[in-house]
Amino acid sequence: MKEAALVGKTMDESIQGTALMQEGERGSRKLYIESYGCQMNFSDSEIVASILAKEGFGTTRNVEEADLVLLNTCSIRDKAEQTVRNRLSSLNQLKQSRPEMKIGVLGCMAERLKDKFLDEEKLVDLVVGPDAYRDLPNLLEKVEGGRKAVNVILSKEETYADVSPVRIDSNGVSAFISITRGCDNMCTFCVVPFTRGRERSRNPETILAEAKDLEARGYKEITLLGQNVDSYLWYGGGLKKDFDKASEIAQASSVNFAQLLAKVAEAVPGIRIRFSTSNPQDMSDDVLHSIAKYPNICNYIHLPVQSGSSRILKEMNRGHNREEYIALINRIRKIIPDCGISQDMIAGFPTETEEDHQETLSLMDIVRYDYGYMFYYSERPNTFAARKMEDDVPLEIKKRRLTEIIASQRKHSLERNRAHVGKIQEILIEGDSKKSDQEWKGRNDQNAMVVFAKTGNEKKGDFVKVLIKDCNTATLFGEIVSED
Ligand code: SAH
Ligand code: F3S
To answer: Which of 83, 240, 279, 415 could lock 199 by a disulfide, CB 3.0 to 4.6 Å apart?
Structure first.
């Protein structure tokens, strides 16, 4: 799950706090919340804002006037945690001048460190794990009474299905809908199963209701979110791993991801639908057929592979080998001929040899991804890899391999972008381009960013036809063409 399309950058560089922006909304007390890491955290912050709005908190983008500052944190790599630690240090100064201001830590670091956080970072008043946000009102009461408060209980049921997110920091065009929480895959490098708990899916009726509500409020694009969306399975509630124990009736009336996609596509036919993240081992051909069948499901799949070496994939417990992944790519290209595909890669996983690394580069040459998110391996406490494997690839080798992976991706991104040049594509306008208010930015179906001049006849949220005229590795450039 990603916050931005990145080509030739590491994800760590992209981690940054985003202040939620719905100033002065309801309430006298002021909440300032920053999200780090994956889209799920950004989406969860909207749930937190909704829960706290009921307690009389309005959000602010000015941390200096906040009564409550919350950091929704990420643990995926060491650097992500360091970013949060640095932010806490900078908040320390502010807290000196405003001792009444309360500071809370949410998300994966809260879950990973639990009450240790309170010892390590003295200014923190509140530590709340990803499944415990409904308890925030009680925890705040404690904090306001001068005590410290912690709730990091992971849940078998919690999906926040009935919480209507406050769409903060939104462009009014695209929104997230969470559909699963947790992950059962236990990739050996990954901290997520420990911080987000076991996998559970959300009732499809509540997902459809949220999609319709977004449509009614003028949104034009929805991204269905989960650590592993292809594994979505609703059978009346409960953990995915307990599906076998459910009644025959519950099993027979269950809804899988391919079916959910179809339901959403039919419920909101004028809305673009995206989803993230797909784990290759859980992606069925039925999902590919749903994408091909419905024009409003975007032809784009984020399909992390992590390595091109079958031996390393096995060590990572990814559940598929190189050949199976290539076979899946071939089926995608056949069933959805113009599908955009992006990757996540990890350079320097324990025991990775130069040959394994070459396998990664050769897989990239075969797939020719549109873009990717690339990282070097960062050992995470308690994961299988941390417990059983030595982090034995020296840092300079990890970095060199990562540089080579990024260089390869840049080449492919440019090549893939060039293939759009000369075509007329439907673009959803998301807002002004970064560089100029005379230009729009928006995405094509395959999720490539497109920048083009305004004509004065269109507005944010419109679908327009754009002739793609030029590109670089990250962006397509075009001009609006008339509809007739
Ligand atoms: N659910 C997603 C991944 C979520 S984590 C999936 O199925 O792949 C997002 C990305 O962070 C991963 O795809 C991986 O590339 C990277 N990542 C996770 N743990 C990491 C670690 N310990 N070191 C470096 N990168 C890591
Ligand atoms: Fe992590 Fe693997 Fe799940 S990367 S989020 S354990 S699919």
So the answer is: 240
